[in-house]
């Protein structure tokens, strides 16, 4: 990673942990990393667990993120949550366009774009997820998919806003499968994403955007992935549910920051 960017290790808890379980895990994370400042650490619980976790991470350096939001500010949108509601619970981040939302809940580049603009407007840092399926990789379409998803999600975002943006490259075939992209495979795509950002904004801005890797990242493979020039952190699923595993990944980032 470049020295101008601070690693971000974010735990995507997905649909796991009720508020009591989430508060317990968050307090373990706070006791390990609540005081350190070398690496940004963030946990992203379910909506119903956000408030309990917010109280636990409050006044520590562990930050809070949500897993989704709606793009409208308020109104007749049954079952939805707005950016302002997340800010009210002291969320700093929001994951947008996760492949599970694209696959199961009809999320498109267009809705991801609307959500990204609304999040930035509300001072939430969007973690915009992109990544190809195995079928797309085997058909040689990785660059095409990455370009379409990146440009689609970021349409209308200004260079000033982009400084608060995080991109997560999550190859769909590596999520929850135990199959990780090799550091070289991941770095190749991360470098491409940075190039796309330079085209959309400018080189300086592109250098400031953190690009996370996600997909079966664990303590055993984190260091080699995080050592790549354009890999600025991780979006962690399964391993973020165990304090020791998540801690091992954060430790790897702390070591590399020295
Ligand atoms: O989807 C992910 C994070 O958003 C990655 O999940 P796993 O770490 O479980 O593969």
TrEMBL record:
Keywords: Cytoplasm, Gluconeogenesis, Glycolysis, Isomerase
The EC number(s) this enzyme carries: 5.3.1.1
SUPFAM superfamilies membership: Triosephosphate isomerase (TIM) (SSF51351)
Active site (UniProt): 98 (electrophile), 170 (proton acceptor)
Compartment(s) where it occurs, according to its Swiss-Prot or TrEMBL record: Cytoplasm
Catalytic activity, reaction form: D-glyceraldehyde 3-phosphate = dihydroxyacetone phosphate
Location (main, coarse): cytoplasm
GO MF annotation terms: triose-phosphate isomerase activity
Magnesium listed as a keyword: no
Gene3D superfamilies per the UniProt record, alphabetical: Aldolase class I
One Gene Ontology cellular component annotation held by this UniProt entry: cytosol
Pathway participation: Carbohydrate biosynthesis; gluconeogenesis; Carbohydrate degradation; glycolysis; D-glyceraldehyde 3-phosphate from glycerone phosphate: step 1/1
Domain of life the protein comes from: Bacteria
Binding site for substrate: 12-14, 176, 216, 237-238
One BP term from GO: gluconeogenesis
Family of the protein in this entry: Belongs to the triosephosphate isomerase family.
PANTHER family the UniProt entry points to: TRIOSEPHOSPHATE ISOMERASE
Quaternary structure and interacting proteins, as annotated: Homodimer.
NCBIfam families tied to this protein: tim
Function: Involved in the gluconeogenesis. Catalyzes stereospecifically the conversion of dihydroxyacetone phosphate (DHAP) to D-glyceraldehyde-3-phosphate (G3P).
Name of protein: Triosephosphate isomerase
Organism: Coraliomargarita sinensis
Encoding gene per record: tpiA
């Amino acid at each position: 990673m470049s020295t101008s960017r601070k690693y971000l290790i974010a735990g995507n808890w997905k649909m796991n942990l009720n508020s009591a379980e989430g508060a317990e895990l968050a307090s373990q994370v706070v006791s390990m990393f609540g005081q350190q400042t070398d690496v940004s650490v963030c946990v992203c619980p379910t909506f119903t667990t956000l408030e309990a976790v917010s109280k636990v991470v409050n006044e520590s350096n562990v930050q809070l993120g949500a897993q989704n939001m709606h793009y409208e500010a308020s109104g007749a949108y049954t079952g939805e949550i707005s950016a302002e509601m997340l800010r009210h619970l002291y969320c700093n981040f929001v994951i947008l366009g996760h492949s599970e939302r694209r696959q199961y809940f009809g999320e498109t580049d267009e809705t991801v774009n609307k959500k990204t603009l609304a999040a930035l407007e509300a001072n939430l840092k969007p973690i915009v997820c992109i990544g190809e399926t195995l079928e797309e990789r085997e058909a040689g379409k990785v660059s095409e998919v990455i370009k379409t998803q990146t440009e689609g999600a970021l349409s209308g975002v200004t260079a000033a806003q982009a400084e608060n943006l995080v991109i997560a490259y999550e190859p769909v075939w590596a999520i929850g499968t135990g199959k990780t992209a090799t550091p070289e495979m991941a770095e190749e795509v991360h470098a491409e994403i940075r190039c796309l950002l330079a085209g959309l904004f400018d080189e300086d801005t592109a250098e400031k955007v953190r690009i996370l890797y996600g997909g079966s990242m664990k303590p055993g493979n984190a260091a080699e992935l995080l050592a790549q020039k354009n890999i600025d952190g991780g979006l962690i699923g399964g391993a973020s549910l165990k304090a020791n595993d998540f801690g091992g990944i954060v430790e790897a980032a702390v070591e590399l920051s020295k």
